[in-house]
Write a structure and sequence with these properties.
By secondary structure, the protein is an alpha+beta fold. Helices cover 31% and strands 20% of the residues. It has two domains: 236 residues, no CATH class; 345 residues, no CATH class. It is built from 14 helices and 21 strands. Strands 1, 2, 4, 5, 9, 11 and 12 form a seven-stranded antiparallel sheet that branches. The chain has a five-stranded antiparallel sheet with strand order 6-7-8-3-10, with no helix packed on it.
Amino acid sequence: MADLHGTVDDVRIGESPLQRFIVGILHPRSLTLTEPAGETEVGDDADQDAGTEVDADFDPGVSFAHMRKPSTIGLTAGVLDTVASLTVDVAADRYEKDESDSENVGWIRRPFGPLTVDVPLSAVGHGEIPLCEGLALRYVVRGERDGVRSVTLVLVNTFQEPSKGPRDPYCWFRPSMVVRIEGGGFADRRPRSAMHHMDRDELSGALLHRAQRHLAVGHGVAVDWEGGDRVGEVRTTFFPQHDLPLASASRDDVPSLDMVVLASGEYESPDTLISAYESRIDARQNNDLVTLEGLHAETAQRHMDEARRAVGRMRRGLGLLTSDPLVARAFRAMNTVMKMQRERQEMIRSGATGAPAPVVAQWRPFQMAFVLLNLEGLVDPTSEDRDLADVLWFPTGGGKTEAYLGLIALCVVHRRLRGAGGDGSGAGVAVIMRYTLRLLTLQQFERAAGLICALEVWRDTEPDQQEKEPFSIGLWVGQGATPNNVADAAKALRRQGRDTAADTGDPVQLLRCPWCGNRLTPDDYHADRRADQLKVVCPGEGCRFGGTNNLPVHLVDSDVYQNRPSLVIGTVDKFAMLAWRAESGNLFGRGQDAPPELVIQG
């Protein structure tokens, strides 16, 4: 923080202040910028009068806080209409050339403040309080709404940019404002009447965050305050901090969702999970909803209704495990391969190779709930759930990827078991995962490749599946990351052998075997031009995907179009090119294949 912003200890610096500091600077006003002229009546819209809307009639200087070189910082706070004035402490630093420096590179800090000024709130209007040469405090006082007034305070660098010479002496560094209400406290800025104009999502947000205080908002800077029943002081900061409690995925009222137990066909724990969720809904309905009123109560009731519909979906999914033998078998297979994938993943993360050590593999409650929630829509083409797009939200590292990897495994196995498609093979693309960022796409590809390897090992143990099309995964990210065809892949591999950068994408996307953990080098990637296929063969001794076998991965576009992998992971730019690539129709069920049954947007 000190490197970016500096501190009061930076009394003398040996370089230009604008080169030393990059945060917390009020620049002089550009000669080409002009302020709105004339006096305008101050309205009731806090955002408009703060200059945060493009058609604001009056601008106290907030718009200059959003420029590349801002010349203002400010805040808008809510105060009760009984408050007569605000007390504002202003401080900032300037730097001047050190005339005693023989090398002419030194700069001396010239602090200003803290200076305390009072801002009157007795009348609606706006004004400016000169603080010193080059610095002023502007304010806007608005009329009350629901007993609360909105007040905007803006600290302005009034220096003009010099026509020549350095700008550093005309900048203010580390500006700050501390705003106090003597003997009182700040009030929530949100007008209650605004809720009547909110849509469903906004009403949900207002309900969920109703306990959060909206005392002030910053303009070009953040605003912070101490907690307590009454907040009498708010302050600006360029480095806001907030303690975010860690989310826990475990629950005491849900038994272990062990993958081995579930793979054996025992479904007592998912049933208990659903019952626990239903009990929680009842408790919120009976204890919490009765404390709400108005739109908050209506919104909370809608949430309860949606939660009960989710319970119904999970119940129907669980019911399919006892009524539909194919769904039950796919569910058991999902648990089997997910346990294998978990063991291999833990082994590779530890840097080990070979056979993995056994691990206790359990679903987190939200993961199993997500699988059950989507089960009916996944296996029943006539289900109304197919009109829904479910959002899976959990903090980073909480297990989102594992939840939809499980759903992917269930989907591709069930597709094979029921013999989807015109030829009854269940082949073709079953699942599409779409990502916006290529880096994230490659990271998820590594994890998903381990799952596909586990599915192949499972297929080896199932007599009725051994002769069917192998499960496989395809990477569809474009020439910037991977080659478009096998010839380009061969060219890229030859260049890697000569330590020359390739301009057609890099086919070496897996650096370790996702099954045994052995390191993969460009020598393990084989571009077979005659077969028009890029093969990746693990060098590990005894690996299921070594020797005459190869990893079930397709890394170039031509391979993906020709082999139509069970799972395709792609980026949005490839989907934007669908209309210009006729062969991409192979991925969407053209010919004998059934169309994809699951789309995951990451």
